[in-house]
Design brief:
2 copies of one chain form a homodimer. Chain A has 305 residues and is mainly β. Chain A is built from 2 helices and 22 strands.
Chain lengths: 305, 305
């Protein structure tokens, strides 16, 4: 099957709404390459390009892509096969009113740092001052058309959106609930590198190409309420909420449901077992809702779909 | 140098206070084996042994051990060389009023589950229902005499205490600020296995033996305010606070200080760089204060002492 390229120049959204119009329709099982622009739409090319406040439009997500046959109640499986950076620089920025340490007297905002892409010795890197950091691209914003509410691409929720989760990278798979016919997948806001937490509010924001395969899972066997990530070693429910405590509760509740279904545990036993293996991981602590995941090692959980 | 054994039968504390009296005094550089009892003082040996409410005395910490020459302003380096479980069962429990999902209608508390220790094929495991989990012991409570306040062994703070951090395991090193002459180290509350988060409120609680080397670092070069963990790959400041958000801020601030000292970054650049590599990790979300760490890969940070 030939791999179709879908570019942000064909269309990109700044809001996930229930009634998104697709820019492209693909079959279930289609292999696509998705081209994204950086989260700031190219507005920061030099360290003198400062961002005074969070832009009204940010995190352009290429799409939406309708997947044939996807109906509410299905699950959309998105295998992230590979990612490549698509420009010669990333940028890390601070913005007044944004970030984990916003309001700290010693933090200067706005500031912009350019992180040039270097070839390295076959292992491409970005450079931040005297530090070379291996490029390990991450998709910051990825999701589907939500059920009833609308969410800007700055916000993560049950439809996905601005999840800013380091596991959204080549080699992993992400599953979304389908809320609308066609699912209407969109993604963007990639980083050349990002820490768990994304503390200053950005990673190294950069244009990327993402090779992915999209597939509709009918009769998925579990009632998926929010995103679920599959890595080579673990299944990770992903939850976003007002506080990290609430996000932890949601992600743990999802992990408990998966463990119960697999082992026949009641809720309490699944809760107790979830306290022994894998565990809670921070995705991001800076967006309007914060995001956490609960890793369950595959040793204790087979494919739930 | 012979390795001295110090047992919980020689002495154990349920509170870290500024004026702890040592049960033993060792030289800086001493190799010790510390024997701990389980966090519930052996009160749960069968699944019919239920814990109705958080006991007034919990997490007995073997010690305190005075280290000769340790003075306020120094750093105590504790190398955790190896850990072994020292009984044939662990226990996982729920307690009413405790745990991430406390108050959830579907969670039964109190409940106790016994997790028998099995030899496996050379790799010892604990068993929880149909699941075998490799034993990977963790120290739950470890700390030194605090500066001015007292903290029960249920509480984590800048002196350490109930940190419930999976990195407190064999092969890693933990550094504490010395607040009182002799440092007065104590540890206990070990687990045969624990998830990041310790969601139900316990891991598999079990008696352990801990081989450790304790060493006083004079003129430590950095102003260590709270625990710092060294793994083979990373340095991880550990912070406890009322909320996960506050704990993230403290741990990130400590990571920033380390990066600034190493690279000459100002606070803002260190903050931006901290958003690119390693990142925030959840230790526990259930104790009276919650605990987070901020991993900084050693590729970007050398020994700060």
């Amino acid at each position: 099957m030939s791999r179709e390229t879908i570019s942000h120049e064909d269309g990109a959204i700044y809001e996930f709404t229930p009634d998104l119009e697709p820019i492209e329709t693909v079959e279930s099982g289609a292999q696509v390459t998705i081209e994204t622009r950086d989260s700031l739409d190219g507005s920061v090319q030099a360290e003198s390009d400062l961002i005074d406040s969070v832009p009204e439009e940010v995190n352009a997500a290429t799409g939406p892509i309708a997947v044939e046959g996807a109906e509410p109640g299905d699950v959309l499986r998105v295998e992230i096969e590979a990612m490549r950076v698509a420009e010669d620089r990333g940028r890390v920025i601070t913005i007044d009113g944004f970030g984990l340490l916003d309001g700290d007297d010693e933090i200067e905002a706005p500031r912009s740092r350019i992180t040039p892409v270097e070839d390295g010795d076959g292992d491409p890197t970005i450079t931040f001052e005297d530090c070379e950091v291996p490029i390990d691209p991450v998709i910051g914003t990825i999701g589907v058309a939500p059920d009833a509410e609308s969410y800007t691409t700055l916000v993560p929720h049950d439809h996905g959106g601005n999840l800013d989760t380091t596991d959204l990278t080549g080699g992993n798979v992400v599953y979304f609930p389908v809320f609308q016919a066609g699912a209407l997948l969109a993604m963007g806001d990639c980083k050349a590198a990002m820490a768990d937490g994304e503390m200053c509010g950005t990673g190294s924001e950069i244009a990327c190409e993402i090779d992915a395969t999209v597939e509709v899972l009918e009769d998925p066997g579990i009632d998926l309420e929010r995103p679920l990530i599959e890595t080579p070693d673990a299944w990770k429910p992903v939850a976003s909420a007002e506080t990290l405590e609430e996000a932890c509760q949601l992600a743990n509740r999802d992990a408990i449901d998966l463990l119960s279904a697999e082992h026949g545990f009641d809720t309490t036993d699944a809760y107790m077992f979830s306290s022994l293996v894998g565990g809670l991981e921070i995705s991001q602590v800076v967006d309007p809702l914060v995001t956490v995941r609960n890793a369950v090692p595959k040793a204790y959980l087979s494919d739930p779909f």
